[in-house]
Amino acid sequence: MKARAHVYVSGLVQGVFFRSSTKRMADRLGVKGWVRNLQDGRVEAVFEGDREAVASMIEWCHRGPPDAIVEKVDVVWEDYRGEFKDFKILY
Length: 91
Hints:
Blueprint: E1 2-12, H1 18-29, E2 32-37, E3 43-50, H2 51-61, E4 69-78, E5 87-89
Parallel strand pairs: 2-5
Antiparallel strand pairs: 1-3, 1-4, 2-3
Helix pairs in contact: 1-2
Family: Belongs to the acylphosphatase family.
EC number: 3.6.1.7
Enzyme class: hydrolase
């Protein structure tokens, strides 16, 4: 079953390679979508793919890369759209 999740990650999540690590993990799991930094210090991402892989991405976001200190992960499940060809870092 395909799924889509819109995720906001709070804490020390910028300047710790969160975006590049998220892309690496998404590519490994075959998840499509994007990740970007927000001006308020959070990281925002959209994940699409098999529900299990999307759930694994969300679980990974609770830890993040080694130097991240994740305080909160907000997840909004959305209808799958199939709009992405790959996973990108947005700037």
